[in-house]
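Lab notebook, bench 4. The sequencing result for the construct came back, and we need a structural model before the next group meeting so we can plan mutations. Quick request posted to the team channel:

Model the 3D structure of this chain.
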Amino acid sequence: MTAASAVTVNGYACSRAVVQIPAWGVWWVDVDLVDAVELAGAVELAALDVALACAVVSGGVANGAAAYRLVGGVGGWRRELAARPYANDAGVRASVVLGDAARAVGETLEGAPSTNLGTHYARASGLASAVLHALAPRSWYVGLDGVTRFGARAEAEYAGDAPRVRLDPGVGVVELAVDDSLAALVPGVTVDGSEPATDVEWSLDGGRLTARVYAGTRLPRRLEAFRRLVEALDPRRRYRGATEYRVVTQDGERLNLQAVRAASGMPDLSRVPVRLAPGIRAEHTPGSFVLVAFADADPARPFVFAGDAAGAPGWTPTTLSLMAASDLVALAGLVDAQLAALASAFDAWVPAPPDGGAALKTQLTTLRVGPPVWPASVAGEVEIS
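Done. Here's the predicted structure in token form:
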């Protein structure tokens, strides 16, 4: 199989693809297609010998290229659910609550727990995935076939012969160059005596297909006991650094987030405030990455302080608003004037432009910053979309 056909979406070849599969929760995919093809809704991604059922979250065709972000299943766990009360004298079963949530968002369940929740249970409003977190924390995951399952993933030793191109025991990463099969390289796999993998990433880039397996090294009993002692002495240790999260949805000025790697041990977060810089607001692209810190290492005070690296898929926001004093009103007018002058200069430079030139002139004429929006709390706002 050639690199060009190693990963396809609905049969269309990908020039670049990253599939990130955590041990629990939802998996995500970023792809660039060779051809500028419009995709929407449910799609199938094929990677060597594996078929993945997923749905388009964002992306499209721009400037003759197509790039998409996909999510495992049908994308329903990202939807909002209304509150719903339950009552049953024989006991409300978790499987009933979970089944109702799945049907409401179009997802499929398998093996839902039948835990008795008592005679009354109130499902809170919010993201559908919150129901899973509440009733089956860290014990649910979306399979590659799009079905949501419960319980621990199966553990198995990797028996393939793919070359190891990177071994980093300190970080807990093994990278393999793969050219025939990915089916065994999923969370739960052990490679060369490692702990079971918590995260697996498949990556197609530059014609090279690799699988990165994230798994800790098995520690001797005394070192493992010492690690647990350190965690007990400093229970907030994991909240002192930055953690990479993925934007699931945006709720006003706040973000609902999923930890990118299950290995981080960090929980999914809801309604996290964004503190990029004074005067900046953004409509974040679904699926994009952000960095999260916790003020004073307090688990109850998370905030987003940075977005993704320039050039990464989805790093540009849908809308960026700059808010400040009334100087921005003059700035908006200045930019409009400069763009109009640029369009006039282009007209004089190419009196009879071909189709490509006409299209560019149209873009120059229509591109602008403003008009300023005037919220009551500030003197002016420039919105760039």
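The CA atoms of residues 276 and 305 lie 5 Å apart.
Will bring this to the meeting.
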